[in-house]
Amino acid sequence: MSKFKLIAVDMDDTLLSRDLQLTDQVKEAVVAVRERGVHFTVSTGRMYRSAVRYARELGIEIPLITYQGALVKNSLSGETLLYRPLPLAYAREVISRVHLLGYHLNAYQDERLLVERDTLEGRRYSAIAGVEAEVVGDLLNYLDQDPTKLVVISEETLLDRLSAELTPQYAGKIHVSKSKPHFLEFSHLQATKGEALAHLAGYFGVKREEVMAVGDSYNDLEMLDYAGLGVVVANAREDIKKRAGYVTLLPYGEGVVEALEKFVLA
Question: Is 160 a residue of the active site?
Fold first, then answer.
C-alpha cells in the first residue's frame, strides 16, 4: 500500500498534454490511484470554472485548488473550503503600476475574467482557459471589491523586471509569482498552492509526509516544498528541478503517470 494519501497535481505543462488535453493514459492512472483510496486533486492557477471541467472528466469529487491557492472549492458540491482574495488596496496599487507600463492585465472576480481592453494577449489567454473575457474598461474604476487575483501578461524579460521591482516592495503583504514565463501573478499573501495544500491535508486528516505534489513551474514551488514528496516533470526548467524530490524521465502527463506508477501504484 502506498504511503501517500493525498496527491495534488498542477495542470498546465504538467497533467495536461501540450494541446491541453487529458490523455487516456492519464485518466487510467488517476482512476487506478483513486481506486486505491488515495485522494487525487488538481492544483492550478486557473479559475475554478476553467479547472472544474477537467476535474469532472477525471471523476474528481473532492476540493480543487484553484487561482493558485486563493480558492479551494469542491468539484462536486460546489462547497467553498477556503477563499483568500487579493486586498483591493494592494490590487489598485499594482494596477496603477501596470498602467504606466502598458502591459495586458487580467483581473478575476466572482468567477469572471475581467480585462480592460481587447488584446491579442487576452484572446490567447481566454482560449487557453476556455473562459470568455469581459471587457470592462479601467480596472481602477471598475473594481469595488477584492479581486481573487491579478495576472499581468507580457514578455518574460519585462515581467522579470516588474517582479524584481514589486516583490521586495510587497514582501509580507502579497504573493508574487510566475505561473508561466509570460504570466506574472499577484495574489493574497497566503494564496499559494502550498498553503492551500496544507489546508486540504488538514481537511482530510492527512499528514504532511503522506502528501505528494507534482508540478513544473515557479508557482508550484510552495506546494513542492510542503509535500512529503515534491515531483517535477521532465519539461520543467532546471531551477525548478533543483527543488524536486524526484524528477520524472518523461514530460507533461506522461511524467505524472510515471510518478503515480512509481510511488503509488507499484
Answer: no
* Residue 252 backbone class (left: φ over 0; alpha: ψ -120 to 50; beta: rest): left
Domain residue ranges of the chain, discontinuous segments joined by +: 6-83+191-265, 88-188
The single residue listed with the C-alpha cell 512509481 is 262
Active-site option among 10, 12, 13, 146: 10
Residue 219 confidence (pLDDT): 96
Pairing of the two strands 246-247 and 229-232: parallel
In CATH terms, the fold of domain 88-188 is: 3.30.1240
How many whole angstroms separate alpha carbon 47 and alpha carbon 109?
10
pLDDT of residue 214 exceeding 80, the answer is yes
Q: Assign 149 a pLDDT band (cuts: 50, 70, 90).
A: very high
CATH class of 6-83+191-265: alpha beta
> What's the CA dihedral at 157, 159, 162, 163 to 10 degrees?
-110
How many helices (H) does the chain have, and how many strands (E)?
10, 14
Pairwise CA distance, residues 54 & 42, whole Å: 9
Rounded Cα distance between 28 and 48, Å, is 23
Give the torsion sign (CA, 215, 216, 217, 218): positive
